[in-house]
Amino acid sequence: MTFDEEWADAQRTAAAGGSSYDLVVTQDDLGAVGHEAFLIHGQLRAKADIAGTGATARAATECSTRNLAMGSEPSATLSTWDSQVKTVLQMYAHISNHLDFSKKAHANDDEAIAAGMRHRGRFRAVGLRDTEVREVTLTWTDLITLDLGKLNEAVTEWKTAAEELAKLHGTVRDGLVKKSEAARWEGVNATVTREFVRSAAKEVDDLQREAKSIHLVLADAHAELTQIQKQAKALADEARRGDPAHTPEPDPGLLVSDGGGGKVRVESSICDAKGPNQRTQDMIRWYADTLTGLVSHAADVDAAATRALRASHGADPYNAGHAEYTSLDQDQLPRAMKLAALGKDAKPAQQAELRRLWQSLSPDARAQLWTAHRDDLIAAGLFNPSVKQMAADRGSGKHGAEDIEWNDWVHPWG
Questions:
Q1: How many helices, marked H, and strands, marked E, lie in the chain?
Q2: Rounded-to-integer distance, Cα 67 and Cα 65, Å
Q3: 8 A C-beta contact, residue 93 and residue 114
Q4: Percentage helix, strand, coil, to 5, in the chain?
Q5: In 106-145, which ranges are E strands?
Q6: HSE-up of 155 (CA within 13 Å, CB side)?
């Protein structure tokens, strides 16, 4: 229901009481409540103007360029937020403008509010229907070139908004609401006006909660992606360096590149007529699998953040105050519980996803998962060794193989 529809419906309900006049309020009460609403309107417009600063829009563009689903969701979040804020601004404009005593006394304030409302909606170009996640595949290049500094700027932007709105809600509660409750209202709209002020106060609180949820989701996503990117770059550098000191033969440097479809291609930097020895093959396989796993982990975090952002604003253009997140645990833990319950029946891909989720979960969430599925986690191989497993030298067979065959010399990344 839009703001205008809500107000009209509230008026009809109040009119059912049979009163013949609209609203009567003393001059002192009007001055206190109306002026307070005007001040809050101005503060809300400044404190909730996420679209105006541009940090989230820049983060959305960067994420979209790097094939993250979050590229579309921050844009949809901004669009929805802007519409929600506009609805609350209308509420405070109505409180200020509707009080029916001496319009002349507040003409300038009314004109300022009206002008401000006409110029809202600067970020509406995105559109509320753009909340569907694009089908994209995160690549190795996307992961290592993603500028996470822009995402961090968006984190700061929403953190500031949440903090400022918390202060504003205190001002609304201790100022406008108290003055409204103490005012001497009479008439058809007396009850509905007092209740409308209470509702307007709640809407500011809802906006603050939503901003805080968005901030915490983005902060957790930024922290996880930063850690994954750092680990990916370090492993890639390690692979490129090789180990010149290894005996009896030095380990060659390895080349790391995109393998398509979210996979990572790894190959030896040295052309050898005999082909890479078994130790090098094992290293190629380990680095390719591990780096591809990091790309998948980043994609998992991206998907979780996208779902959490969408749930936070609810794609509701009129009302804030939907799901509240303190971290990505709330999205990831249920999935981890479901995978852990498979135990020994978990397939390799499910085991890999479970390991990635375990790495993402906070200590508290891990404790919940361990308490509920300790035996299942062990059966699913969550704690199996993940260290490098490779042949000792050129003449050795593949790690864990009893007999070396011709196929052991051919690797899928070559």
A1: 14, 2
A2: 6
A3: yes
A4: 65, 5, 30
A5: none
A6: 15
